[in-house]
């Protein structure tokens, strides 16, 4: 399943801060950020089916996150 999120992640340092948690949470799967997009998109391709847990993960790290329709 593919999830797309609008985030407040702004820098590569922010991504490094999230890497361990996203890798642990989205296994098996892949994720990436598009910091060039105005919505700083996070795309996740994973077998898990719970967008709310991704939103909570980012919020707990201090970032805004909302799911966008895919």
Write the layout of secondary structure elements.
Layout: E1 2-7, H1 12-25, E2 29-34, E3 41-46, H2 51-60, E4 65-68
Antiparallel strand pairs: 1-3, 1-4, 2-3
Explain what this protein looks like in three dimensions.
- The structure is a single chain.
- The mean pLDDT is 94.
- The protein has helices at 12-25, 51-60, and strands spanning 2-7, 29-34, 41-46, 65-68.
- Strand 2 (29-34) and strand 3 (41-46) form a beta hairpin.
- The N and C termini lie close together (10 Å).
- It has a four-stranded antiparallel beta sheet with strand order 2-3-1-4, with helices on one face.
- The chain has 70 residues and is of the alpha+beta class.
- It is globular and about 25 Å long.
- The chain has two helices and four strands.
- The longest helix is centred in the N-terminal third of the chain and has 14 residues, at 12-25.
